[in-house]
Write a structure and sequence with these properties.
Blueprint lengths: L1 H107 L1
Length: 109
């Protein structure tokens, strides 16, 4: 009977050892899977950050081009206003000179 008890205990010990080994293997697989998931999430975050940086750079470039275009348009408007004012002053000067000549001619009569 003693041999039967020892054999039963040995079988139980081997059974527990096998179960423990399966648990360790499962835990190892779970840890490896978690590490893979974390790496994939890190890669996705890095790709998202790179895409966001590219989009920000493109938006800044577009904004710069818009500001440059607006500045050019404003410069053209100012130049046009200055030219128009110059033309008006020139015409006014011509008109004054003409009227002055007329007045001097009337004074001589």
């Amino acid at each position: 009977m003693r041999k039967i008890i020892i054999a039963s205990m040995a079988a139980a010990a081997f059974s527990l050892a096998a179960c423990s080994e399966k648990t360790q293997d499962a835990a190892s697989d779970t840890a490896a899977s978690a590490a893979d998931d974390a790496a994939a999430a890190g890669d996705a975050a890095a790709a998202g950050a790179a895409d966001a940086a590219d989009a920000t750079a493109a938006a800044a470039k577009d904004a710069g081009a818009a500001v440059e275009g607006a500045a050019k348009d404003a410069g053209n408007a100012v130049e046009g206003t200055v030219n128009a004012a110059g033309d008006a002053a020139s015409k006014a000067g011509d008109k004054i000179a003409e009227e002055t000549k007329k007045a001097e001619a009337n004074d001589k009569k």
